[in-house]
Amino acid sequence: MTHVPHLSRRGLLAAGAAAAALPLLAPSAASAREAGKAGRTPYTFGNAEIVGGGFVTGIVFNQSEPGLVYARTDIGGAYRLDTASRRWIPLNDWVGWDEYGHTGIISIATDEVDPDRVYLAAGTYTLPDWDPSMAAILRSTDRGRTWKTTPLPFRLGGNMPGRGIGERLVIDPNRNSILYLGVRGGHGLWRSTDHGKTFEKVTSFTNPGNVVIDPTDPDGYNGDNLGVLQVVFDKRTGRAGKATRTLYVTVADKDNILYRSTDAGATWERVPGQPTGFIPHHAVFDHVGGYLYLATSDTAGPYDGSKGDVWKLDTATDTWTRISPVPSTSDDNQYGYSGLTIDRQNPDTLMVSTQVKWWPDCILFRSTDGGASWTRAWDMGTNSERTLRYDIDISAAPWLTWNASPSLPEMAPKLGWMMESVQIDPFDSDHFMYGTGATIYGANNLTDWDSGGTVHLSVRAQGLEETAVLCVISPPAGAAHLFSGLGDVGGFRHTDFHKASKMFDSPTFHITPALDYAELAPHTIVRVGNPTSGWTQHFGISTDSGATWTPSGSEPSGVTGAGVEDQAVAISADGRRIVWSPAGAPVSWSDDHGATWTASKGLPAGAPVRSDRVNPAKFYAYDSGVCYLSTDGGKTFKATAATGLPTAGNVRFKAVPGHEGDIWLAGGTNKPATPTPYGMWRSTDSGSSFTRFEAVDEGDVVGFGKAAPGATYPAVYTSSKIDGVRGIFRSDDAGRTWIRINDDRHQYAWTGNTITGDPRIYGRVYFGTNGRGVIYGDPK
């Protein structure tokens, strides 16, 4: 999953009950006064359940306490599994706006000496323009309930190529004050001797790696050195309280992939006889037999990989054996290997996954004889039929089919893709889990595989919500109070916040950047998106509150994408006119529900658009500090006389239900390279002039909900910085005063894409996150 706040970059490929409500503490009196109004407004927040939705890059079992397991995601933070509810508990909701990059977790380390200790290596991007903050080690002594931060002098790349490799952060199993961290970007190997409070570079380790995906792109997404990848301990060479003597380090250097130290990291040697030509993705040490296993691939992943091998090192004799289920020398090997695990109860039992195999499906391999022979999770028949050793229950996340009915040998749902973390429970040979680009699957009868039985896979991602939310709407009528548009997994009609559903269909989009409903005819809803395979349309309309959809009969000439997030499409108040601002084509209007389109006049291509919520003839647009008005249903637009508005940065604007010509606008940026106003403004004359709210230091997104009891103006919601305080705010008096409704423990990182209130329930707010799904909140 790839999403960059402020730059609107979005993903490369797509492939229980709702999250337990989280009680929020009221803001302090000081914070509330600074925000414009003294008082307390405790809220309860939770997720509108989707279940998963993004790349689970790592699953880590504690090696000494049964049931203690963590998961990491590329942009949505880390989670701990609650053994009672079998739901994942989010651990990074306290991360704030300015440190939003600390929700990209490149590695997790759970302490087998003191299981209360857990560490996260956090930092989403290595590109300063995408993530200005440096990386950090987040450390907890209470299983992630509270955290302390150790700043690092470099970036880590939790959502960069190679993010499924590792784990890069590990704890010495004998002396748990010692941690090692493998770092990308040429920064080498680092070590802490004080439980992660400080780190220093291991200067005796001299190979920082040299694999760069695209050397011609030094400042881009693929231009970073993958670096030092993983540290693995032979814990037999230490004892309680003493540093482990022998440890291995894997490196992204195809000629020198493995090093060893036998003196607790003081000196290092290249392990003799090692294989070359591939990148080591995962290393696992068998502490009973003394074997080191490696899964390798020719690329960093997670989206590619066409060759690879699995190797077994007898550390007593330094003898290497290639144990690949299909060796790289075979023409049948068209994939690398990544997810690797051993059964700690029976160490001769191994499992490994293809790093990625898009067609027809990824493969899990299993061996019960130390890699001498393997069986596959599925085999191909002579007529493209597949014989399966598993079945899959996706009732907890029925969208995992992507509404597809592919021809054999493809199947829906897939076994998975980007399967870089496969883990057998160290205390239960029957229990295993693995992450995919969309969810976690697992089973409780894994050993049935070995006797010819069927392994019963099911979704194990309940509580883990990892979608990047691009838009939310809440119509004033209909069965659903909430509709969401998402990256990677399309979007949803949420009729039950406690239950996942299928995604929008007819057409099916893998990205839905914008939705709108007709204010005076709210059963009519429009959406635009980028279609999945089998669809070509970028536009859909519903006249029955989203129960069914109809794709567009045509599109504006040149359309290459749906358009800008949250503001690419608008429908008139009466539902008869639609204005669409797609990518690659002019802003266009339709008066026949998308059957035909005509280019609007007077607007730059790509300008965000909105409709007036009272007057069906009025539409608004905005571009580079200029507000535009149409009074003829979007046929023609003219620039208004408004001045002093943001010319750069994210700008979000909305018209107010029930009030013609009333527009709120939030946006701008404080980046030195692009100085521009940054705040919140209101117009009551259809955009001819705007007045700034002086209390709003940084305005980012605004929405409206049902008015407070006794009030006539809708409640206003915003994610903004107001009087020096960053948070989610509500105003019940048209912006004269504001109350913060979240607190510092529940900030959800970056929340600048979309927000709305519920027009039927006073106080309810819905807002999008960049990796933690759709959040809804109600006053206590």
From TrEMBL:
<dbReference type="GO" id="GO:0030245">
    <property type="term" value="P:cellulose catabolic process"/>
</dbReference>
<dbReference type="InterPro" id="IPR052025">
    <property type="entry name" value="Xyloglucanase_GH74"/>
</dbReference>
<dbReference type="GO" id="GO:0016798">
    <property type="term" value="F:hydrolase activity, acting on glycosyl bonds"/>
</dbReference>
<keyword id="KW-0624">Polysaccharide degradation</keyword>
<keyword id="KW-0119">Carbohydrate metabolism</keyword>
<dbReference type="GO" id="GO:0010411">
    <property type="term" value="P:xyloglucan metabolic process"/>
</dbReference>
<keyword id="KW-0136">Cellulose degradation</keyword>
<dbReference type="InterPro" id="IPR006311">
    <property type="entry name" value="TAT_signal"/>
</dbReference>
<dbReference type="InterPro" id="IPR002860">
    <property type="entry name" value="BNR_rpt"/>
</dbReference>
<protein>
    <submittedName>
        <fullName>Xyloglucanase</fullName>
    </submittedName>
</protein>
<comment type="similarity">
    <text>Belongs to the glycosyl hydrolase 74 family.</text>
</comment>
<keyword id="KW-0326">Glycosidase</keyword>
<keyword id="KW-0378">Hydrolase</keyword>
<feature type="signal peptide">
    <location>
        <begin position="1"/>
        <end position="32"/>
    </location>
</feature>
<keyword id="KW-0732">Signal</keyword>
<dbReference type="Pfam" id="PF15899">
    <property type="entry name" value="BNR_6"/>
</dbReference>
<dbReference type="InterPro" id="IPR015943">
    <property type="entry name" value="WD40/YVTN_repeat-like_dom_sf"/>
</dbReference>
